[in-house]
Specification:
By secondary structure, the protein is of the alpha+beta class. 35% of the residues lie in helices and 13% in strands. The protein is built from 5 helices and 8 strands. The chain has a 3-stranded antiparallel sheet with strand order 1-2-3, with no helix packed on it. A 3-stranded mixed sheet has the order 4-7-8, sandwiched between helices. A two-stranded antiparallel sheet has the order 5-6. The longest helix is centred in the last third of the chain and has 22 residues, at 141-162.
Length: 208
């Protein structure tokens, strides 16, 4: 743990600690102490802690899989990141609710939907869910799978770029809007590749 200051970037974390963290994730899984939903966290400064992204501990393998979080808010520390909404189910719980972090009624569902936009206006296609991953919306199955894959991939690229130091130039609103339109038109292109990839595995069966 850092005695002074706040550790807010992965490149500020000692490489020995990162290696030990990754080994710790693997050892806990090896001994059946965590499954796909478990995690290991370590305090790295007075105000931040280190934890893997939304990933099974057995699959954590590099600094790209790690995220620094704020102790106070529980949110990822990255002042340059795009403003993806973070929905906290804790803000809508009542005393009578089961606080299991699952969206299982209209009240919770409506609150989550509101984080994406109101009425017919969709402001965000992705929202982070505190303690529960993310929600992704799109107009068809191909596009929602596309957004799931590239949301995670783009976040890893941005995190790696920030780790190099300096700032990252993000899209302007016009660039983001125009890119989204272009992407929507080509979202079906990778679908045959993705289906072929899973069809080659004996793990997946599609009997429809």
């Amino acid at each position: 743990m850092s005695e002074t200051g706040s550790v807010t970037r992965i490149d500020q974390v000692p490489s020995a600690l990162i290696r030990k963290y990754i080994d710790g994730c693997h050892i806990l899984h090896y001994y059946d102490l965590v499954d796909a939903y478990g995690h290991l966290s370590v305090r790295i400064s007075d105000s931040t802690f280190l934890m893997s992204r939304y990933l099974a501990p057995a699959l954590v393998s590099s600094p790209d899989d790690l995220v620094i979080y704020s102790v106070d808010t529980g949110e990822a520390v990255n002042s340059d990141a795009p403003k993806v909404p973070v929905w906290d189910i804790g803000t809508v719980y009542t005393e009578s609710d089961q606080q299991h972090m699952l969206v299982r009624n209209t009240k919770h569902g409506a609150s989550l939907a509101k984080s994406l936009g109101e009425g017919s206006e969709l402001k965000h296609s992705v929202a982070l869910m505190r303690g529960h991953g993310m929600v992704v919306v799109a107009e068809n199955i191909e596009m929602v799978v596309f957004k799931c894959i590239y949301t995670v991939q783009n976040a890893k690229v941005q995190q790696s770029a920030l780790g190099l130091g300096g700032s990252v130039q993000l899209f302007t609103q016009r660039e983001a809007d125009d890119t989204a339109n272009t992407t929507a038109a080509g979202a079906v292109k990778p679908w045959p590749l993705w289906t072929r990839e899973v069809e080659k595995s004996t793990l997946y069966q599609n009997l429809a």
